[in-house]
Structures are given as structure tokens and as C-alpha cells.
Amino acid sequence: MGSTASIIIEQQQSRRRGRLGCYLKLLVGIVALVLLFHYVIRPVFESGFGMADTRPVPGEAAHFEPFVALPGIFEYAGAGAELVSIDLRYVRSDGTMDLTAESYRPRAEYTFVRPAAPPADAPPIGAGGSVSGQWYERVTIEAYQPGQWRHVTTISGGVSTEYSYMNQGMERDIDSPISSKPPVIARPECSLAEMWEAAKKQDAPQDAVATITYNAQGYDFRISALSISLQFGTDCRLRN
Predict the structure, then answer these.
(1) Are 169 and 224 members of one domain?
(2) Are residues 79 and 169 part of one domain?
(3) Is 61 in contact with 99 (CB distance < 8 Å)?
(4) What is the pLDDT of residue 40?
(5) What's the structural domain count of the chain?
(6) pTM of the model as a whole
(7) Cα–Cα distance, 35 to 200 (Å, whole number)
(8) Are 128 and 212 found together in one domain?
(9) Same domain membership, residue 36 and residue 150
(10) How many angstroms separate the CA atoms of 83 and 114, rounded?
(11) 29/78 same-domain check
């Protein structure tokens, strides 16, 4: 009798161990699928199977600080990148942008130039070739609504290519090499919030948003609906 009871107990324990093993295998399988989706499948689809180059913006997208974020954006632009211009639409009175806003879609665009290898079919000097032997490529980085899906259709050599991708916060586009270098500028040292203070003295409302550009001529501040237009030099001084 005792022997029979022992066998029954062993069988029950064996079944429990078997069920536990199945549960563990199922759990491991679920974890593996989650990790596979998160780190492999999802990034592939979000990047349009590698066709798009996007990454999260430095800092908080809802309170994006376009000048404070520059170190991370320079890193994204690549080695040797130099700043050409910055175009900001739309900047709030505290100097930040809400990139998550859907009703008016704020966007920050940074243009850089960096050294590049000459193209395979580079023309000779006198026909558009580089006199110095140095070639450059323009790099554009756009920061806009994270999570926005975009569809792209390109035609090259008569072949059409289509893909969709999801913007993580900012995306990078690299142009074909050029033989001349556009004018470059220093990193901005002026405060967007202080520009806004000057605009408030001209009756700009606190809850408005402004378009601000920065290039070799300085800063241009505009609120088009109110005909407010201010120009600041690279020294941050108001010109008008």
C-alpha cells in the first residue's frame, strides 16, 4: 500500500514538474517574441526597412528647446558637420516648441555641410569639378511630430520605390556631393525667449508662436498674422 502511494505521489510530482516546465517554456517564448518585436521587427517597419534615418529628439518633444538640443543634433549630422542655417516653426514665448502639437505641426530644420568623398563621376575642373579637390554634402535634419507615419515614393532610372516609415522625432537627409562649400555660421548664442521679450514690447501676445530663422545674416523673428518682423544681429542686438 505504501509502495503504491509513493508511486502515485511521484507521478503527481512528475506531472507538476512537467506543467511547470511547459509554463517556463511558454514564458520564455513570450519574452523572446516581445524582445524580437521590440528590437527587430518594429524598428524594421518603423524605418521603412532601413530606407529612413530617424531617431528621438534630444530632450522632451513637447517642450523642445531647439538651441539647447544642438549638441545632439550636431552628433546626428555626422563628423565634420558645420552649421549653415536653422529654421524654426513655431516657437512659443518661452523659447520652446511643442513638436507633439497636431493642430499646427511645429517643425525645426537644421542645415549642415560636411566633407564628402567625390562622386564616382565627378566632373573635371572647368566643368563643375572642385578646384581644391574637396567635395561637400549638405545634411538636413528635421525635428517634428514623433510617431507620425510618412509614405515616400521615389523614381530612379524608371524604377519606382515606395516605403512607409515612422518618425521617431527627427530625421536626417543627405544630399549628393557638391564641389563648393556654402557659408557656415557659428552655433547660436542668442536666447529665443529674449527675442520674444522684444516682440512683446511690440504687442506680440503671450500665447502666439513665431517663425525664427538663423543664418549668416543673423536672426529673423516673424509673427506673420500680426505683421511683426524683427531682425537681430549675430551679436543678439535688435536691428529694427
Answers:
(1) yes
(2) yes
(3) yes
(4) 47
(5) 2
(6) 0.78
(7) 51
(8) yes
(9) no
(10) 9
(11) no
* Region of 51 on the Ramachandran plot (φ > 0 left; ψ -120 to 50 alpha; else beta): alpha
What is the residue range of 220's domain?
57-232
Residue-wise over 36-68: b if at least 16 C-beta within 10 A, else e?
eeeeeeeeeebbbeeebbbeebbeebeebbbbe
Cell numbers placing 181? 562649400
Quick one: which of 88, 38, 43 has its CA closest to 210?
Answer: 88
> Could you please report the per-residue DSSP string of the chain?
-HHHHHHHHHHHHHHHHHHHHHHHHHHHHHHHHHHHIIIIIHHHHHTTTTT--EEPPSS-GGGB-TTTTHHHHHHHH-TT-EEEEEEEEEE-TTS-B-TT-SSS--EEEEEEEEEEPPPTTPPPTTTT--SSS-EEEEEEEEE--TT-EEEEEEEETTEEEEEEEE--SEEEEEPPPBSSPPP--PPP-S-HHHHHHHHHTTT--TT--EEEEEETTEEEEEEGGGTEEEEE-TT--B--
Per-residue pLDDT tens digits for 207-227: 999 999 999 999 999 998 888
User: Is there a single domain that holds both residue 227 and residue 185?
Assistant: yes
